[in-house]
């Protein structure tokens, strides 16, 4: 949640400095806007946590049902590509309403490249089996979490950027720390198992 708060303040401040109409009461109330952005960022962080735990539950259930890791990875890879293509198509259909002629290709391309970088780094930290699940989380789960800014009644490019970037960073933070937390828990469990019974 703290990561969400900090990233939202940074993204919101940059957007406010480049577009004075962004934010409440313009640049005159920068401190107030920063506090509001921090609160929104905390909500983004909490929402990201819910999405992350939902994905972990889905992953556990899918592996229990499918029982073949490569089939589940293939399904996640297909869904990731479909999501990137689908979001590009939806934004292309809405380009007149959004008054924008570049978001429909910049968003899928940028999200795909950034997700690939996070997945590649995660695979380097752990093993190659982590690449596809990380890519799925960073693309599909991030898009689902940011769906209100993409297809909401008040959706616009500013709202998309303001919501997608903090969600993406929060998801990346969680997935990159997951193996360290699991390893620490396994070490703690092993140590407690080795203690003699009292």
Distance between the termini: 39 Å
Shape: globular
What count of helical segments does DSSP give?
Answer: 8
Structural class: mainly alpha
The counted number of beta strands is 0
How big is the Rg? 19 Å
Average pLDDT rating: 84
Helix content: over 70%
List segments where confidence is low: pLDDT < 50 over at least 5 consecutive residues. Answer: none
Query: How much of the sequence is in beta strands?
Result: under 5%
Give a structural overview.
The structure is a single chain. It is built from eight helices and no strands. It is an all-alpha fold. It has a domain of 132 residues. The longest helix has 38 residues.
Topology of this protein?
Elements: H1 2-18, H2 30-66, H3 69-93, H4 95-98, H5 103-125, H6 131-145, H7 147-151, H8 157-194
Helix pairs in contact: 1-2, 1-8, 2-6, 2-8, 3-5, 3-6, 5-6, 5-8, 6-8
Put the structure in a nutshell:
The chain is an all-alpha fold and 198 residues long.
Question: What keywords describe this structure?
Answer:
198 residues, 8 helices, globular
């Amino acid at each position: 949640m703290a990561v969400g708060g900090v990233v939202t303040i940074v993204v919101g401040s940059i957007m406010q400095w480049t577009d004075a109409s962004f934010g409440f009461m313009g640049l005159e109330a920068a401190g107030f806007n920063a506090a509001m952005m921090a609160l929104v960022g905390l909500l983004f962080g909490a929402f990201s946590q819910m999405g992350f735990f939902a994905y972990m539950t889905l992953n556990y259930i899918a592996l229990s049902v499918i029982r073949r890791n490569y089939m589940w990875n293939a399904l996640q890879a297909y869904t990731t590509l479909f999501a990137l293509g689908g979001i590009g198509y939806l934004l292309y259909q809405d380009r007149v309403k959004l008054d924008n002629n570049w978001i429909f290709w910049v968003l899928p391309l940028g999200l795909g490249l950034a997700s690939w970088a996070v997945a590649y780094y995660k695979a380097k930290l752990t093993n190659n089996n982590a690449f596809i699940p990380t890519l799925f989380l960073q693309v599909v789960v991030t898009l689902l979490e940011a769906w209100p800014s993409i297809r909401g009644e008040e959706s616009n490019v500013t709202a998309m950027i303001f919501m997608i970037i903090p969600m993406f960073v929060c998801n990346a933070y969680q997935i990159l720390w997951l193996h360290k937390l699991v390893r620490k828990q396994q070490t703690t469990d092993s140590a407690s198992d080795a203690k003699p019974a009292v």
